[in-house]
Amino acid sequence: MRLTKFLCVPLTILGLACVVPVSAQSGGAVAKVNGVAIPQSRLDLVIKAATAQGQPDSAEVRNALRENLITEEILAQEAIKKGLDRNQDVLTQIDLARQGILIRAYQADFMRNNPVSDSDLRKEYDSVKAQMGDKEYKARHILVETEQQAKDLIASLKKGGAFDKLAGEHSVDTGSKSNGGELGWSSSAVYVKPFADALTNLKKGETTNQPVQTPFGWHVIRLDDIRAAVPPSFEEVKPNMQQRVLQRKFAAMVESLRKNAKVE
C-alpha cells in the first residue's frame, strides 16, 4: 500500500500549516490552521469562481486554491490577534462587503426565478431592429470646439479642401481624426439625435452646409455611402436580448421596492 506523504511547514509565526492533498482531509474540512478548520464549502466556492473564469478544474488548481485559503486564514488570524477586527473602518468594510454579497445573491435569485419567454425576446428583438432602421450610413466628421471653427472648415471644403486632411489637422475626436474623420458603417440610431438627423438628411457624397451642434461640440459631417442594413439573426442576439430584458425587469422591481420602502 502506497502511503500519502505530506509536509508541515512553518508558513508564519503563527505555527504550522499542514500541506496535505485535499482528498486526505476528512470531516468536511480541507485543512486546519492553529486548530481552526477551513471548511470544504469554502474551497468549493472558490473553485466554482475560478472555473467560471475559465480555469480548469484540476488537482493542481484545487491544491493551489487550497494553499491560498490556508495563507488567507493565517493572515486573518494575525489580523484578529492585532485587534483589527474591532477597528471601526474594518467593521464598516465588512458590513459593506456583506451587503454587496446579499445584493448579488438577491439579483441572481431574481434572474433565476424570472425567466424571459421567447415571445418577450422576439418583441425586444423587433423593437431594437425597428430602432436601428433599414439603412446603414458610412460617415465622416470633423469635431471642433466652436461654431466658428466649424464654419471655417465648411468654407475650406467648399474651396476644394480635402475632408480627410482637414479632419486630421483640426478634429478633436482622437478616435477618428487619424482616419480622416471616418466613422465606419453604422445605423443612425447609434448617434445622438442632432447628428443622426443631419446625417440622414444628406445624400451620398454631401457635406453639411451648417455646423451641427451636439453635447460633444460642433460637427462637420459628410456622408460617404448608404447601404441596406442587415441585422443579426434572432438566435445571434438572443443571449444579449435576454440580459437586456432581465436587467430592465430587475430595475423596475428595484424602483417598486424603493417606492414601498419607508425611508426616514
Summarize, please:
By secondary structure, the chain is an alpha+beta fold.
Gyration radius, in Å: 30 Å
Physical arrangement of strands within the biggest beta sheet = 6-5-8-7
Taking the sheet with the most strands, its summary is: 4 strands, antiparallel
**Mean of pLDDT:** 89
Q: Give the class from helix and strand content and strand pairing.
A: alpha+beta
Strand percent estimate: 15-25%
Shape: elongated
Q: For the record, give the distance between the C-alpha atoms at the N and C termini, rounded to a whole number.
A: 69 Å
Number of helical segments with 4 or more residues? 8
Helix content: 40-55%
Number of strands: 8
Sequence stretches where pLDDT stays below 50 over 5 or more residues: 1-27
Secondary-structure element series: EEEEHHHHEHHEHEEH
- List the quaternary state of the chains: single chain
Overall description:
With 264 residues, the protein is of the alpha+beta class. Strand 1 (7-12) and strand 2 (15-19) form a beta hairpin. 50% of the residues lie in helices and 19% in strands. The strands form 3 sheets. It has a 4-stranded antiparallel beta sheet, with helices on both faces. Strands 1-2 form a two-stranded antiparallel sheet. It has helices spanning 40-52, 59-81, 88-113, 118-132, 147-158, 163-170, 193-200, 234-260; strands at 7-12, 15-19, 29-33, 36-39, 135-144, 182-186, 212-214, 217-228. The model is unreliable at 1-27 (pLDDT under 50). It contains 8 helices and 8 strands, in the order E-E-E-E-H-H-H-H-E-H-H-E-H-E-E-H. The longest helix has 27 residues, at 234-260. Helix 1 (40-52) packs across helix 2 and helix 4 packs across helix 8.
